[in-house]
Amino acid sequence: MSRAAKATLLASVCLSAFTIWGVHFLQEQEHENMFQGVLRDDERRREKMRQREEELQESLRKRALYERYQQVSSQRDVLEDHS
Q: Entry's Pfam families (predicted)?
C-alpha cells in the first residue's frame, strides 16, 4: 500500500471518527437544552401557582374585610330574590 493511500485512509478514518463524535456531542447538547427547558417550564408553572395562591389569599382576605362592614350575598341568593 502506498504512502498516499495510507494517508488518505488515515484522514478518512479520522474525519469519520470526528464526525461521529460531533454528532453525538450535538445530540447530547440538544438533549441537555431540552431538559433545561422542562426545568424552566416547571419553575414557571410553580411560580404561576404561587401567584394564584397569593391572589386567592388576598381575595379571601378582602372578602372577610368586606363582610365585616356589609352584608354579602351569594349569587344563588341574588337569583332567588329575582325569581
A: PET117
CB 72 within 8 A of CB 63: yes
Q: Show the beta-strand stretches assigned E in the chain.
A: none
Distance of CA 72 to the CA centre of its chain: 40
CA torsion sign for 48, 49, 50, 56 is positive
**Length of the chain (residues):** 83
Nine cell digits for residue 48: 404561576
| pTM of the predicted structure, to 2 decimals | 0.54
Quote the CA–CA distance of 72 and 36 in Å, as a whole number: 47
Q: What is the pLDDT of residues 2-55, one digit of tens each?
A: 999 999 999 999 999 999 999 999 999 999 999 999 999 999 999 999 999 999
DSSP label of 22: H
In angstroms, the first-to-last Cα distance of the chain is 103
